[in-house]
Design goal:
The chain is an alpha/beta fold. It has eleven helices and 14 strands.
């Protein structure tokens, strides 16, 4: 049986009459890279604050690293690492001074400080820049230093909040290599991200929307089984103009540009394709290809969120 690092059972957080997190239940295994996704205001940050022991739940229960999120919040804080998108470093301190500062914050034993500092410098590739002002570091290096500082005290669970925001693709890839290394050592990584291609790196994903858990599974499961809609990819000239015309065709639930192509959500791709081609050509567009494709994660998330919005709208109409 997989050892669990995080457990949530019907977790809820209210602010007055507003429900920020609504009855979320999930498990995250030790050494798992778990992606927590959702639009701004969905409840991701509120959930993470409860997991980090910074906010008490209104109801429900949970554990992090074996400690209760209600009654053992101080133990949780000592057992986790946290890294935000702003890196939480002091630009006017040198690299090694930032490491020393966080060694004090995390109360690293005196006899281990030198060893842990050396580990961070090696992991981040900053041995030759230990006396460089942190503010002068490129974004990717600063990112690795921040990760090292979050891991100084060897936490069991690492929370990463939009950790690669504003970082170039090569640095992002290097960063994820480090994450894989940490997970291989048994560290559980709980990460929020807006990059869909980055979500593919996670072992499993949870989509949260309006405070509720909308979907949970591996990237493959998300794309293969959790999406009710089918996706058509349309290659045509003047795709920006064709987008509006395509979205008006009966049977199209949603339409969006993906590069130069258009992705369309529909209940029946086979029935829609010939009708869509005829209507686009009748509107003066040259259609080069229409084919059903495997949905991207972005397709999946858009479809799931719109399905939830439709269900909520139907429920309100029924109640009215």
């Amino acid at each position: 049986m997989t050892e669990l690092a995080v457990t949530l059972r019907n977790l809820e957080r209210r602010f007055g009459n507003f429900v920020a997190v609504n009855c979320i239940s999930l498990d995250v295994g030790r050494g798992e890279i778990f992606g927590f996704l959702g639009p701004n205001g969905a409840g991701k940050s509120t959930t993470i604050r409860m997991l980090c022991g910074l906010l008490e739940p209104s109801s429900g229960s949970g554990t992090v690293a074996g400690f209760d999120i209600r009654t053992e919040r101080e133990q949780i804080k000592r057992s986790i690492g946290y890294m935000s998108q702003k890196f939480s470093l002091y630009d006017d301190l040198k690299v090694e001074e930032n490491i020393d500062f966080y060694s004090g914050i995390y109360r690293i034993p005196r006899d281990k400080k030198a060893e842990r500092k050396a580990w961070v410098l090696e992991m981040a590739g900053l041995q030759d820049h230990r006396r460089t002002l942190t503010g002068l570091l490129p974004g990717g290096w600063k990112q690795r230093l921040s990760l090292g500082c979050a891991l100084l005290h060897e936490p069991q669970v690492l929370f990463l909040d939009e950790p690669t925001s504003g970082v170039d693709p090569l640095s992002r890839r290097t960063f994820w290599d480090l994450i894989y290394n940490m997970a291989g050592r048994g560290v559980t990584v709980f990460v929020t991200t807006h990059y869909m291609e980055e979500a593919e790196y996670c072992d499993r994903l949870a989509l949260i929307y309006r405070g509720e858990l909308v979907a949970l599974g591996t990237p493959g499961e998300m794309k293969g089984h959790l999406m009710a809609d089918q996706v058509l990819s349309v290659s045509c000239d003047r795709s920006h103009e064709a987008l509006g015309a395509a979205s008006e065709v009966v049977g199209v639930r949603d339409a969006a540009l993906f590069g130069r192509d258009i992705h369309l959500m529909t209940a029946d791709a086979e029935a829609l394709a010939p009708r869509l081609k005829r209507e686009l050509e009748a509107s003066g567009f040259r259609v080069d290809a229409i084919e059903r494709i495997t949905p991207s994660l972005e397709d999946v998330f858009v479809s799931l969120i719109e399905a939830r919005d439709r269900a909520d709208g139907e429920q309100k109409e029924f109640e009215a």
